[in-house]
Amino acid sequence: MANTPQSKKRARQSEKRFVINKARRSRIRTFLRKVEEAIASGDQEAATAALRVAQPELMRGVTKGVFHKNTASRKVSRLASRVKALGQA
Q: What is the stated purpose of this protein (predicted)?
């Protein structure tokens, strides 16, 4: 358990950050799920619109330290290629 004042403060800060990051991660996953659902329905316009909304949200998660930059880029790239494939099918 934390003993020094500094370690106690760090523990408090860590709890706060955990709650904030958890909410942010959940919000991003919701946006990603909306894209997935639009892809599953086969509606390219809806999928494109959902991806356009989800992309900045995902990148915002990168700047806030929730996701790694490459992870977010990989997710966006894979979703974009799947949305693009809808138009060709």
A: Binds directly to 16S ribosomal RNA.
- List, as one string, the DSSP characters of 54-84: HHHHHHHHHHTTSS-HHHHHHHHHHHHHHHH
Q: At the topology level of CATH, where does 5-87 sit?
A: Methane Monooxygenase Hydroxylase; Chain G, domain 1 (1.20.58)
User: Is the pLDDT reported for residue 18 higher than 80?
Assistant: yes
Note the pTM of the prediction, 2 decimals.
Answer: 0.86
Which DSSP letter does residue 84 get?
A: H
Tens digit of each residue's pLDDT (9 = 90 or more) over 28-71: 999 999 999 999 999 999 999 999 999 999 999 999 999 999 99
For residues 28 and 61, the answer to whether their CB atoms sit within 8 Å is: yes
Q: How many CB atoms lie under 10 A from the CB of residue 35?
A: 26
